[in-house]
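so my prof wants the structure for this chain in the tokens format not the other one, which i didnt know existed until like an hour ago. anyway here's the sequence
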Amino acid sequence: MQNATDLRKTLTQEAKAILSGSNESPAQIYDLAKRLAALSEFEFARRVLEKAYEKLSGDDAPVLRLRIVQKWALYTYKDTKLNREERFETARKILIKEGAISQTTDQETLGLAGAIYKRRWEVNSQKRDLEWALYYYSKGHQQGPEKDQGYTGINAAFVEDLLAHQEQREAREVGGESETAPERQARARAIRQEIIEHVVPLEAAFDLTKPEDWWWWVYATVGEAYFGLGEYDRAVEWLVDRPRAAGLDISPWMRESTERHLAALAVMQTDAATEAGFVQSPAGVALTKLFGSPYTVGLIYLQREDAVRVGFERRFGLGLSGGGFRASLFHIGVLARLAELDVLRHVEGLSCVSGGS
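here's what i got, hopefully its the right format
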């Protein structure tokens, strides 16, 4: 069996051959792209899928066409080597290639559309992106949670909570209480209860023909549903104590996606004013049990104790370098753009030199 380094080298060589014009079929390229993505080689994965799409003909099965487009969009928005705004917009346009995403009932497509808008919100903090994400996730959930292991539903619940948290925070800043936040939280709770009702029975079927990533989303979705309901022991049971969940061989980004959701939920569920209070809260204790050690957030490797703190602190600093008059003009433009995106209010510290001052 090849080790990860040798396998990565072999697969990237195959990808380079395809990009140079080798004659693999769209189905063969699709399989290669999935193997590349499992190693987080998203740049090669999206590029070969673009080649696969170009090779498609009218005789190719509609299912294969759709799957190629879906993975192409997924790997595009996950490719951090692309400009952030570019990769989200490009991924959205890719989804449109096989029909308007506003008309589809395909849960995979709807989930991808929701994910694109949610990731855009993470970058620009625009509430409208969260609302679009909720639209697509909710439409996917309406098709039946058991059909996609609750994936679109659990994300719809998560976005409802994000919007509720944001609306409550904005209302309290002016001395009031949000009227819409409790309604959103109630909908999130109802979705999670529905997921538990329909997705938990999938484990009993124990269909060994299902791939490991299919099983992971069953355990991750149910675990997150319990966590969102405040039933932390059940969450730990599904994500850690279930023997099959602990032994699944899945891509790191899948675990990271779930971990990020749980960390954000813990922050929203905890009113602690200090880091120590957060870590000692029921949500913080559960979070410590759930995170692996070490695990990856972006390019930073964190020990499990630090993983808990990441969710709580969320402070941002802005460094402005020197360079005289040119630097001053450049930094004014940066600050103006951050203000337009409503990101500037999250900055709590400034470090400036010379023209940056």
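also thought this was worth mentioning. DSSP finds 17 helices and four strands in the chain.
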